[in-house]
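hey so u asked for the seq, here:
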Amino acid sequence: MRLTQLYLFQCGENELFAFSIDKTGCNIPRTLCQDGWLLRGHVKPTELMNQDYADVIAATTEFGFCLLEIIPSQWIEEEGSS
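ran it, structure tokens below
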């Protein structure tokens, strides 16, 4: 599968994040986030490759999502800028 976009979700207002191949995030297990997953932005996989996140891309491709605890602040879009 060739990814063209990864969608970044945040667990409510918590410091737990996830990338998903699905814009709705419905493939991220709800049991991992009781507050619900909120779409926070999107990143092109090529941008991540340039930043040495190949393991994140590989995991997201294999499982459809990947959990992240620390992310660069520029990955989060300002509200209304999607």
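Helices lie at 45-49, 54-63. The first strand starts at residue 6 and ends at 11.
lmk if thats what u needed
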